Amino acid sequence: MSTNIVEATRRILADRVSGSTSLAKRLLKALVETKPTPEEALVALQTISSSAKSMVILRNVSSTCYKLIERGAPPSEAAEKILEELDRSVEECVGEGVIRLGGYKRFLTLSNSDQLLKLFTALSPAMVYVLESRPGGEGAILAKTIKKHGKPATMAPDLSAHILCGRVDCVVVGTDAVYERGFVNKLGTGLLTHLCAAYSKPIYAITTKWKVAEASRSGDRAGLRSGYNSVFEWV
User: Fold this and answer.
1) 179: Cβ–Cβ under 8 A, 6 or more apart, which residues?
2) How far apart are CA 83 and CA 79, in angstroms?
3) CA angle at residue 22 from 119 to 94, to 5 degrees?
4) DSSP calls for 149-217
5) CB-based contact 100:172 (threshold 8 Å)
6) Residue 49: pLDDT band with limits 50, 70, 90
7) What tens digit of pLDDT does each residue of 133-158 get?
8) Which residues contact 66 (CB under 8 A, 6 or more apart)?
9) Cβ atoms within 10 A of the Cβ of 148, count?
10) Main-chain dihedrals φ then ψ at residue 27, nearest 5 degrees
11) What SS3 class is residue 113?
12) Contact at 8 Å (CB) between 20 and 57?
């Protein structure tokens, strides 16, 4: 198998701080740039699909790309097609977010997400507070990146969530998987929902169709939990 696609697959599976949408894009771009054979691409996609259990978007992207290649599409062309659809889906999601959240100025969020970054840079926030999001601490990455895009942001300790929730206009979180009766996201999201209820603050979850899990049809909450580790939680 192409060394480049092998290395790209390994890096994606080893990454514990990047958002799932960013990882999906990296996979697709690697398929475009390395131009693997159909056989090599199918092995890489199968590896991602079976290993990235906690990131539904990677499974959905891999599965869709796999089917296109099986039907005869060159891997690079299949990846380019899905990348365009993914980018369009994210832009539509962010556009809807701007419409719904444009009246708010102070936000609270957690973890690291490509969609959250695009949303906050499209808005005109007075401040975005990003919880550190331990274990992992990837909230620091999102706060730093938002500031690089010229928007005000600061990282805050997870224990300050109750204080900050009382100060902001609303809370916005990402999603790692969306089901019919709830969603899965980074540990700490559930606490934010309770704090919003206590402070009468609105909370929004930003997502795209690519994060909708097939298991949503079953509504089996116990089964949904089996594929996720302790840094994720059901909300």
Assistant:
1) 212, 213, 215, 216, 219, 224
2) 6
3) 20
4) TT--EEEE-GGGHHHHHHHSSEEEE--SEEETTEEEEETTHHHHHHHHHHHT--EEE---GGGB-GGGG
5) no
6) confident
7) 999 899 999 999 999 999 999 999 99
8) 42, 45, 46, 49
9) 11
10) -65, -45
11) coil
12) yes
Give CB contacts under 8 A, 24+ apart, made by 90-99: 90/21, 90/114, 90/115, 90/118, 90/208, 91/118, 92/208, 93/206, 93/207, 93/208, 94/118, 94/119, 94/122, 94/206, 97/122, 97/123, 97/172, 97/204, 97/206, 98/122, 98/123
The helix/strand/coil state of 91 is helix
Using the Cα atoms of residue 104, residue 105, residue 110 and residue 111 in order, give the sign of their dihedral: positive
Mean pLDDT of the chain: 90
pLDDT at 217 over 70: no
The pTM score is: 0.86
pLDDT by residue (tens digit) across 76-113?
999 999 999 999 999 999 999 999 999 999 999 999 99
